[in-house]
Structure formats: structure tokens, C-alpha cells
Amino acid sequence: MIRISHILPIMSFPLLAAMIPAHAQDGTGKISFEKQVKPILESACIRCHDEDEAEGELIMDTLANALIGGENGPAIVPEKPEESPLYVSTTLPEDDDMSMPPKGQFLAQSQIDVIGNWISEGAEWPESIKLEKQPRMMFVRDIQPILEEHCVACHKAGKAEGDFDMTTREMAFTSGENAPSIIPFEPEKSAIYFLTTLDKDDDDLMPPAKKGGPLEKSITEKLRLWVLQGAPWPEGIELKQQVKVDGNTSPDSLELVQKIHAFITETAKDSQTDEMANYAATVPQTGAPFNMVAIKGGEFTIGSPDSEPNRKDDEGPQVKVKIAPFWMGKHEVTWDEYNPFMVTQVDRYKDGSRKDYDQATGNIVDAVSQPTTPYMEMSFGMGTRGYPAISMTQHAANKYCQWLSAQTGHFYRLPTEAEWEYACRAGTTTAYSFGDDPANIGDYAVYYDNSISDDTGENQYMKVGTKKPNPWGLYDMHGNVSEWCLDAYIPDSYATLNSIEGLAWQRPKSLYPRVVRGGNWNSDPEAMRSAIRIASSASWKRQDPQLPKSIWYHTDARWLGFRIVRPKEIPSAEEMYEIWNMGRGTE
After folding, report:
1. How far apart are CA 272 and CA 275, in angstroms?
2. Which long-range contacts (CB under 8 A, 24 or more apart) does 205-208 make?
3. What does the pLDDT read at residue 3?
4. What does DSSP assign to residue 333?
């Protein structure tokens, strides 16, 4: 949150304690660190300033660390808010590069006032309290939809049950038979939260059981966190009743996939041939180029022998697997290909379906779910033109494949784990596709020792195809970014693959773990062998501030990407639907 790189002007700071309700203080008339300041810092600051991130070399998890500060000195100067970057950075204009938190995550004025008053009063912070990350609740994104869908119908002007009108900020904080119904920083005393947690048969449950109560736990948790973080409600926002839509109304259904399947089978009739050859193509809607390498079917031994150095237990038992012919992306999918799919400037529901889609007139491409707007810049400053796309969930990668298929008339998907290793080995049986000697890894892979950027001096991914290809002409199979596969991760899964021909894979039964293959720009040579396996984890979206967490982004996996395959045989529409939707889910 704090990245002050220049001398800030001294600012006048009027004491604002009178603006903070007495019940939100600690009984002494002073701001309470534990009740008021701690929730704000944990939700708005720590995700960029803990021991793992430490942007600007600043760690804010304890008072001692905050006083030590980072590149720009202490973050807090007790009794002097006008000299404390923690406070000053929150008061800057939103278009100022130094305004914190960044990227549209600005604090509400009421939260800024709390921080300023706390510092003015001496910035008391018990030594025993260490801050931990908490999801950040943004009113417009997280709370307004809940109130408009579940509450406003019974609590608006002209129909204010219990005399509680929540259509405006002023009325929500002052009206009601037992006002106030919202007590900032104290969810257990706020009717807007605790009444939603009552038993289903309790007469005071809100909303009542006959009107949709009790709410899902994920919804009530958002309300709790919002109040805990000070119940920020921007000025000028007036709530309006929204009709609750039940069921899945997304056009991205089996019916849509059946239409895409018909398009694919019709396209195949026009290009029917027994020959497979490499080909170059472009994404029809954007013109972004990509290349596909023809991979002949065959039989190979998956996994590594017991004698291979650095072998892990999950790389066996070795078994022979038969692989059907397919094409595979010559390179990892780049931002040139993926970004127009990810960023569309279209209002979407959380499942990625368009809010403006008309099923009567809409086309099959626009009906495919696409990511909601990312909550941060997803290349993390490492480069986009020619660089591999990163940090997407398996669901997002699957939907990209569906989106591309709907445009091209060819069926694209992620590779199975067996297909991936078959293509990576490219006919070899050694630890790497170039042999057993890791000393040669730098010729074929972007990895820890050669991934330092000339611009930043930090390790990062590089443009695709900058190293030598494997024997079948595939680039970056051993490094740059690790790559999604279709399979569920099961430590001894190979034991059940030996009798399967063609599409040999483990169908997932849960969201985690799934298989990721290949080393990456942050890997050492032993983690880049052809047989190495990675199990996906919910921790890969630890920084995601949303509840429930996004189905589209793994913000903590900046080394994760994917490449596409196109099987020669076209599966049924039902199989396509399963494959393109098997990554859907939330934590």
C-alpha cells in the first residue's frame, strides 16, 4: 500500500475524533486499534506489505516493522499524521500515482479519518498483535448487490419495515425502530448482519424464510467483514431494488456446446483428410497468430524410473500409455491471444456470462463465459506482447479453449497429463528431452538462472520461443511458465492408465488438486524434468480479495500458464461440455 517515492508536502490535519461514533471507540474516547484500525490495515494494506510481498521493502504486520518502514522511511510517525505515509498516501487524489491503496481500491473517507485520528492520538498498537491478510470488502462490488437483491424490497421509502430505510447512506445509518442498525466496526451489534445469522425458524431472521432467508454463509460473511472494516458506504450511492434471479440463466450451456459441436463437425467435412501437418492460424476475432504442431499417435512410458536423480514418488509407477494423434500449440498461449478474451469491457455476471446477451440474436462466441474484469494488472509488469499469459485458473483456460473453438470450428482443449508428457519427451526416455545432463538446461528453458530481466533485475518469464525447441518442434516445454492439464492430481494415478487407449486421463471429482506440468522461470533444473508434476492449490489465489474467490484468477501463481491441443478425433458435444466446464467452482 505504501510506495511514497518523493517528499510529500506537509498537510494540515484537523482532529476528526468527533466524527467517529462513541461506540466505535475503545471506551476512553480514543480510536481502538483492535476494533477499528486493525480491520482496515488487514484488509487494505497487508496483502502488499507482509513478509511475503513487502512492496517498497515495507512490512506492516507489526508496529515495530511499520516504524522501521521501507524505502521511504517509517510508515507511521506517532502523533504526526501529516508526516506518516500510511495516512498521507490515502489522502492524495485518486489519479495520483502515489495514492494508496492503488488500482481503484481506495479507502472511504470514514476509514481515512480513523487512521488519521489514530496516528494523531499516538498510534498505540499492542506488541502482541500481528496483522494477517483479510478479504477486502468494496461497497459497490460486494455489498450493494446483496442489499439491493435481498433487503431493499422491504426497507425503502414508502415501505420501510421496522422503520428501517436503507436506500441511502444517511437513512441506513440512522433509521429503524432500534437504530442504529449499522454500527461500524461492530458486526455483532449491527442488525444488518446479526439478524441474517439467526435460525431459519426465528421470527427475527432477515430476510425471513418465506422471502429467501437464511442467506448463504458466503453472503453473510461479506456483510460481517464489511461492518468489521468500518461499513464504508460512498457518498451519493442510492440503492434500488433488484430482482433476484434464481437458477443458472447463463447461455453458456450444453445447448450452446451442441451448437459449437455442429459448427466443428461441419467445418471438419470441408477439410477432411487423413494427413496431419503443422499449421499456422489466427484468432478470428482479434487476428492474434498461433501455431500448431502435429503430434502422431503412439505408445510411450509415462513417469520416471527409480534410478532418475531427484525423482519424486508421484512420478510412478511407470506404465505404457497409448496416445491418439493430436495437434499441440507450438508455444504457450501468449497475452496477444489471451488478453482480448480476458479483458472485454463488457458487464458480466460472476460466472462470466454477459449481462447484455440476447439469446434470440446473440452469437455462439459471445455466449461463451469470459473472465470478469481482473482486480489487478495480471502481467504484474513483466510484459505482454509475445509473453506467455499467466495466473488464470483451469476454468479460465478451459473457457479460452471453448471461445477459440467457437470462432475457428476446430475443437481445442487443454492437454491430458499423458498427452503433455508424451509431447514433452518427444520420443526420448531421458530426464529431459535433450538428455540427462541438467547443465544443458539453459539452451532449452527459461529457468531461475537465466530469467532475470534486464529492465528490472528481477526473475520473470521471457517471450515465448526464445530457447531451442524439443525434438518435435515444441518450445518452452521445460520452462518459462508451468502449464495446466485436464487431469485431477492423484499421486499414484499412473497405475490406472495402463489399460486405456487414446484419451487417458483422470477425471476430477473436486476443484483441487488438478495437474500442472513443466518447470517455469522460477524453477531449478531438477524441477524441470519431463516427469515432474505439480498439484494445484487454493493458496494460489491467496491474495484474491473476493468472497467467494474468483473462478477466473490465480493471482499468486505468476508462473502458471497453458498451451492448447486439438485432438484429431472430434468428441461428442457432451464430452466437450464436460471438458470445457470441469474447472468451474469456488473455494
Report:
1. 9
2. 206/151, 207/150, 207/151, 207/154
3. 33
4. P
What would the grid cell of residue 343 be? 479483458
| DSSP states along 358-404 | -TTT--HHHHS--PPPPSS-TTTTS--TTSBP-SB-HHHHHHHHHHH
3-state secondary structure of 428: coil
Where are the domains positioned within the chain?
Answer: 17-120, 139-228, 254-581
Sequence-distant (≥ 6) Cβ neighbours of residue 131 within 8 angstroms: 38, 41, 42, 45, 46, 50, 60, 61, 62
Distance CA 105, CA 189 (A): 27
One-character DSSP codes across 522-539: T--GGGGSTT-EEE--GG
Element (H, E) at 517: strand 514-517
Beta strands 482-488 and 560-561, pairing class: parallel
Q: How confident is the model over 171-198, as a mean pLDDT? A: 92
CA distance linking residue 494 with residue 319, whole number of Å = 7
With beta carbons less than 8 A apart as the criterion, state whether 392 and 583 touch: no
How many Å apart are CA 155 and CA 175, to the nearest integer? 10
CATH of 254-581, one of 3.60.21.70, 3.20.20.70, 3.30.870.10, 3.90.1580.10: 3.90.1580.10
| Separation CA 18–CA 117 (nearest Å) | 10
* Residue 562: per-residue pLDDT: 98
pLDDT in tens, 23-42: 445 556 799 999 999 999 99
SS3 state of residue 269 = helix
440 — pLDDT class (breaks 50, 70, 90): very high
Give the span between the Cα atoms of 349 and 143, in whole angstroms: 15
Higher pLDDT, 448 or 350: 448
291: DSSP letter: E
Torsion sign, CA atoms 116, 120, 124, 130: positive
Distance CA 550, CA 430 (A): 39
Nearest to 67 by CA among 57, 56, 77: 77
Report the distance separating Cα 514 and Cα 525, nearest Å: 23
Instruction: Say what the pLDDT of residue 546 is.
Output: 67
Give dist(CA 330, CA 17) in Å, integer.
62
Could you read off the pLDDT of 242-271 as tens digits, one per residue? 765 444 468 999 999 999 999 999 999 877
For 504, other C-beta atoms within 10 Å of its C-beta total: 24
